[in-house]
Amino acid sequence: MPLRTDIPVYRPDLYSASAIRDTYPHYAALRELGPVVWLSKHKVYALPRYAECRQALLDDDTFASSGGVGLNPVANRVGQGTTLFSDGEDHARRRSLLAHRLTPRALRTMKGTVDQQAAAVAEDAVARRTVDAVEVATALPMSVVPDLVGWPQQGREHLLRWAGATFDALGPLNCQAARTLPASLGMMRYARAVVRDRSALDGSMGHDLLLAADEGRIMPAECATMMIDYLAPSLDTTISAISSALYLFALHPEQWRLLKADPDLVPKAVNEVVRHQSPIRAFSRTATRDTELAGTAIPKGSRLLVLYGSANRDPLEWDDPDTFDIRRDAARQLGFGQGTHGCAGQGLARMETSAILRALVERVDRIETTGPPEWALNNVIHRLERLPLELIPA
Questions:
Q1: What's the pLDDT band for 54 if we cut at 50, 70, 90?
Q2: pLDDT tens, 347-368?
Q3: What is the DSSP string of 142-208?
Q4: Which of 26, 269, 298, 383 is deepest in the core (most CB within 10 A)?
């Protein structure tokens, strides 16, 4: 059967402010067009369906990250030397340096502390009763991740803004990316200063990286980029997941009652939240050879956009994909990636999101919105900027 070359074209801008704030109608239109769609605005092939996204993610020999996963050449050049922008043995080497920090055994040693901090966050939120979901969602990752990565106390007040800007820079070179570029460069300057001054906290990931550089296992310049590698995703994606969970349970009180009746549903609930409101909108890959996807010819050197958020709502893969149902088995969702580039910190993200949900289930009878949601403008991260809630105590 000959390969298809007449690829359907989608002309709207997936990265306009309106599309960022209300992205799901765009995903539905793209899936309707076919398994591979040409985005004329950005000159890339988009993969809006689950099967092709998963295929591309599992074949990093053909669909490489080493040329960058952003949609602009500046970010793809600046990001060289990171774990995210590497493949094969180079990728495995970088991940192995810190893999021991994120194994199930290592995370088990953190569980008591994370549960304790989650309980404190939940108690404070219930005591205030009227809260911002994003503020609640931010508290736990900010109390866990900076210490784990090893950032010194000084300068931490900028980490959230810097982390968000790091993701923004991976979109196209639009106004959004340009506006946040100084902040993403600020994070790199800060990380380099931490490495230069050897001010990473003792016993942290950053400390491990400095020792690896001392032993010649990595170049000193890699220390800064790898610290950022683990900070930005560990903050933004988890904050997105927790705030989305609060939003979804406020919209679907029957699901909250299900969770209260059976807290053992928490792991399923976390997967369903990440499926329904994927924290990462999309990353790109580059075809290393002439190839094909779903019978569509993909020339060597082409850039493809893996649309995680669309794949996780694909009706060819999921029954009633727009419905939020914590009883669903959503373990195969792509929100944390898949294959060798699957999110290294997903175990920690799951632990933190689970801990907050369990702490709130014990203390909160109902979650109610008291105002409209405000979605953050970010090229890559899908998350709320603000959501006023009332937590009705149990």
A1: very high
A2: 899 999 999 999 999 999 999 9
A3: HHHHHHHHT--STTGGGHHHHHHHHHHTTS-SSHHHHHHHHHHHHHHHHHHHHHHHT-SPTTSHHHH
A4: 269
| Cα distances (Å, whole numbers) of residue 170 to 158, 258, 305, 358 | 19, 38, 12, 34
Question: Among 78, 111, 96, which residue's Cα sits nearest to residue 182?
Answer: 78
Contact 371, 385 (CB under 8 A): no
Q: H-type helices in 4-130, by residue range?
A: 17-21, 24-33, 50-58, 73-78, 88-98, 104-128
End-to-end CA distance of the chain: 62
Kindly state the helix (H) or strand (E) to which residue 308 belongs, with its residue range.
Answer: helix 308-311
Tokens representing residue 300 in the block: 């060597």
Q: What is the pLDDT of residues 178-228, one digit of tens each?
A: 888 888 888 888 989 999 999 999 998 889 999 988 998 888 888 888 888
Residue 135 identity (one-letter amino acid): E
How buried is residue 214: exposed, middle or buried, by Cβ count under 10 Å (0-12/13-18/19+)? exposed
346-363 vs 253-261: helix crossing angle, rounded to 10 = 90
- d(CA 60, CA 81) in angstroms, rounded, equals 17
> In sequence order, what DSSP letters do the residues of 111-142 get, joined into one string?
HHHHHHHHHHHHHHHHHH-EEEHHHHHHHHHH
- Between vectors from CA 86 to CA 30 and to CA 20, what angle results, nearest 5°? 30
What pLDDT, in 10s, does the model give residues 142-186? 999 889 888 998 888 898 898 889 899 999 999 988 888 888 888
* Number of Cα atoms under 13 Å in the Cβ half of residue 372: 3
Of residues 10, 15, 71, the one with CA closest to residue 38:
10
100: number of Cβ within 10 Å = 11
What gap in Å lies between CA 174 and CA 168, rounded to an integer?
10
Q: What angle do CA 169, 171, 173 make, to 5 degrees?
A: 80
d(CA 304, CA 144): 34
Four-CA torsion 312, 107, 342, 282, nearest 10 degrees: 50
Burial class of residue 369 (count of CB atoms within 10 Å of its CB; 0-12, 13-18, 19+): middle
CA distance 291 to 206: 39
3-state secondary structure of 74: helix
Taking the CA atoms of 60, 63, 66 and 70 in sequence, report the sign of the dihedral they define.
Answer: negative
Give the separation between CA 194 and CA 239, rounded to whole angstroms.
Answer: 25
